[in-house]
Design brief:
Distance between the termini: 15 Å
Structural class: alpha+beta
Strand order of the largest sheet: 1-3-2
Shape: globular
Radius of gyration: 12 Å
Number of strands: 3
Strand content: 15-25%
Length: 82
């Protein structure tokens, strides 16, 4: 069942896996910034493919936001992505 915000058919399996991994790291803290390596570690070993494309797509759809830092890019959820 769709929530009406983002149709279910717009997300690929990789995007869903990355989104689920990111949200499982939040631990009910919505202002937490998550590095890409933490998301990669949360995925099962056979699913630890390159994350840049799914992350870029999720950012473009407004489900995650990218926050550039000196050590790389971190990601955090948006209201739409919840």
């Amino acid at each position: 069942m769709s929530t009406g915000i983002v149709p279910d058919d717009r997300l690929t399996q990789k995007e869903v896996a990355v989104l689920f991994a990111a949200y499982s790291l939040l631990d009910s803290r919505m202002n937490m910034h998550i590095p890409m390596e933490s998301i990669r570690k949360k995925l099962v070993p056979r699913a630890q493919w390159k994350l840049k494309k799914p992350l870029k797509s999720l950012v473009a759809q407004g489900l995650l936001r990218a926050h550039p830092t000196a050590g790389g890019v971190t990601y955090y959820p948006t209201e739409v992505g919840i």
